[in-house]
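Structure ticket #2291
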Amino acid sequence: MSKKIVFVGPVGAGKSTLIANLRKSENHVLKTQTITYMGEFVDIPGEYIEIRKFNYAVINEILSAKAVVIVQDATSSKMAVPPGFCSTFEGKKIFGVVNKIDIKGANPLKGKKLLLESGVKMENIIFVSAITGEGMKKLEETINKILKE
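Resolution: structure written out below.
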């Protein structure tokens, strides 16, 4: 099993921004067009989860990963991944991140509910803002712990 951590979620959820924040990158974040490998992180374009014919690529990346981070946008009522999605990967470390909690109108509790419906365990949900940094320390500590195992 590799040390890679796969980030999955819909277009605009903030996956690339989260990864840039975790990598302490100051580069401008661009829309991810293809599966992108950045050190231990794998950034999956949102279309790969939203368009069924691309789901095989998501599944292949997850199967060879050490862990998965499902990113849910706190400003959206659209589910990041299908209901029960995480149960497909029994035994895999799966975390949920409710991102964009700093934005006016955000509903972090709705984000948490959607992650729970997708199969993320309550204790594995982290609330963050990739822009303000709120909650990022906890996410970083979680990622570092996974990578050291």
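Closing remark: Helices lie at 15-22, 47-50, 55-63, 108-118, 136-148.
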